[in-house]
Design a protein that fits this description.
By secondary structure, this protein is an alpha+beta fold. About 45% of the residues lie in helices and about 20% in strands. The chain is built from three helices and three strands, in the order βββααα. The protein has a three-stranded antiparallel beta sheet with strand order 1-2-3, with helices on one face. The longest helix has 21 residues, at about 40-60. The relative contact order is 0.12.
Length: about 120
């Protein structure tokens, strides 16, 4: 369920996306600013529409989460690599994990650049 908070002439919409691996709640938020031409009733209606769309996007995973590379890669191994890749390939990737996590495991995905890699 989305939480809506009025902030000046804009609104903040917050959605809970579950919990991360350490048990901390993951919350995504967005700011929506209504058009000045809209009436109060139109603003309320559009705000509800935006909150539903944002909540759906969060639940489908379309919103970029602030997840660290190490957490993402562990999830990728579990959900994709072990299912789609050959066993020998997965073993080779697991051998590199320790070095890779030490180098870039602490960096958030949205902050990771080619320079880091």
């Amino acid at each position: 369920m989305a939480t809506i908070q009025k902030r000046g002439n804009s609104y903040r919409i917050k959605v809970s996306c579950g919990y991360d691996t350490s048990g901390k709640q993951v919350i995504q938020s967005m700011t929506w600013k209504p058009d000045e031409k809209l009436s109060e009733r139109q603003i309320k209606k559009e705000l509800q529409k935006q909150s539903v769309l944002f909540e759906d996007a969060c639940l489908k995973g379309n919103v970029v989460a602030t997840i660290k590379y190490e957490d993402f890669s562990r999830q990728w191994f579990k959900e994709y690599a072990e299912i789609k890749l050959k066993q020998r390939t997965v073993e080779g990737y697991h051998q590199m994990e320790k070095r890779v996590y030490k180098a870039i495991g602490h960096i958030r995905l949205d902050k990771l650049t080619t320079r880091h890699i």
